[in-house]
């Protein structure tokens, strides 16, 4: 069992801080010296009876090394299942519930890691619990082992990627500084590549995706290799290297091991749309079996470009009926206004609000499109100062 002295030290420190105790105060409560408590919190492994006594003071159960070894593999497998994309949301949720008591044990660090991944991967679940948990793990992260620190900083960076670019960069930089580890650094490289892609730093995005690809190759992680290749194709497309992007998408489609080809067909359709090959774009989007937001977004614009207005409006109405996602509905409604040239009184505010929200949650392609709509709108209304402001933002996003 790796790093359990460190994990138990962090556990003791967490409970001490939660109870607003200094190391001296805790030492007095459990009849140990302050230096002994400090050694424990610094990761020195002591006898199980000592941890049991400390946890008893906090009115918590404690499971020793021999009692929890049988459950360690479950957490290890849960982590690997996620890394190798075999995870199921329900399975992870059930495992966290099943092993809830065992977080007061040498499994503490691994339990916290799985809980972190769960909260960040499924942010719609237990949002309030998530915020409390993230604040807690952030206060403890420097006490974990370097490998676990890297995973924690990585997922903190990933979580802030869509809401606070500066914070995300700080956490990713800290994760990189931890070192190189099997089955954690590869995910870090991939996440940083996605982050740099969202920031439109395409050279850095390509560099980190290449590093991720090499690590995933070493780890024989074939599903992650597929998504890394897909991401590299997306980088080419954003860089307007459409021939390279189209070539990579086609190779990915020809790979029989790919389970969900809809995301590839969707992006391939957008590549053809971008070079105004609308018939090919329509053919590719028609091959999507999963009707996600991107399917509707691409299909509507493709049909509009082909002057199939009735088909475009039919897709708009279909999406607006089925979707409960406010920002997605706003974007599709904006497309409806553009296609019909019928603008509501609050169209300007809707466009500005949607643009700001999209910057935090959507691909830069959609953000740029909304930006160009803003520029067109203000030019049409002769509000040149506003048009110039958004034109600068559009220009800067393409640097």
Automatic annotation (TrEMBL):
Q: What high-level taxonomic lineage is stated for the organism?
A: Bacteria, Bacillati, Bacillota, Erysipelotrichia, Erysipelotrichales
Name of the protein in question? TPR repeat-containing protein
Q: Where is the HTH cro/C1-type domain?
A: 12-65
Tell me one Pfam family matched here.
HTH_3
The UniProt entry, under Gene3D superfamilies, shows: lambda repressor-like DNA-binding domains, Tetratricopeptide repeat domain
Q: Which InterPro entries is this protein grouped with?
A: Cro/C1-type_HTH, Lambda_DNA-bd_dom_sf, TPR-like_helical_dom_sf
| GO molecular function (one) | DNA binding
Query: What PROSITE patterns does UniProt report for this protein, alphabetically?
Result: HTH_CROC1 (PS50943)
Q: Which residues form a coiled coil?
A: none
């Amino acid at each position: 069992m790796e790093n359990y002295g460190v994990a138990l030290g962090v556990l003791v420190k967490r409970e001490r801080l939660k109870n607003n105790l200094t190391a001296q105060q805790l030492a007095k409560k459990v009849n140990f010296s302050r230096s002994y408590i400090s050694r424990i919190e610094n990761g020195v492994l002591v006898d199980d009876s000592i941890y049991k006594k400390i946890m008893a003071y906090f009115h918590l159960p404690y499971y020793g090394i021999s009692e929890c070894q049988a459950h360690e593999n479950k957490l290890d497998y849960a982590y690997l299942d996620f890394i190798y994309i075999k995870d199921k949301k329900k399975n992870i949720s059930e495992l966290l519930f099943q092993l809830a008591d065992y977080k007061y044990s040498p499994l503490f660090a691994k339990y916290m890691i799985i809980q972190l991944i769960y909260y960040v991967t499924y942010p719609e679940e237990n949002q309030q619990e998530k915020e409390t948990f993230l604040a807690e793990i952030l206060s403890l992260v420097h006490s974990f082992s370097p490998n676990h620190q890297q995973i924690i900083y990585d997922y903190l960076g990933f979580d802030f990627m869509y809401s606070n670019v500066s914070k995300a960069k700080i956490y990713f930089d800290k994760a990189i500084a931890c070192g190189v580890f099997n089955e954690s650094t590869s995910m870090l490289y991939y996440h940083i590549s996605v982050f740099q892609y969202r920031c439109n730093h395409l050279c850095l995005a390509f560099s980190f995706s290449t590093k991720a690809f090499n690590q995933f190759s070493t780890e024989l992680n074939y599903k992650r290799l597929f998504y890394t290749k897909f991401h590299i194709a997306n980088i080419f497309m954003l860089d307007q290297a459409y021939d390279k992007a189209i070539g990579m998408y086609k190779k990915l489609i020809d790979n029989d091991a790919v389970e969900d080809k809809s995301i590839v067909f969707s992006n391939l359709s957008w590549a053809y749309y971008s070079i105004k090959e609308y018939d090919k774009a329509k053919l590719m989007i028609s091959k999507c079996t999963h009707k996600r937001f991107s399917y509707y977004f691409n299909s509507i614009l493709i049909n509009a470009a082909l002057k199939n207005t009735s088909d475009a409006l039919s897709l708009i109405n279909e999406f607006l009926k089925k979707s409960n996602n406010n920002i997605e509905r706003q974007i599709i409604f904006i497309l409806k206004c553009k296609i019909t040239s019928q603008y509501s009184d609050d169209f300007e505010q809707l466009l500005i609000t949607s643009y700001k929200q999209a910057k935090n949650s959507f691909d830069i392609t959609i953000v740029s499109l909304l930006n160009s709509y803003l520029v067109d709108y203000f030019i049409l209304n002769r509000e040149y100062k506003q048009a110039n402001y958004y034109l600068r933002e559009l220009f800067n996003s393409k640097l």
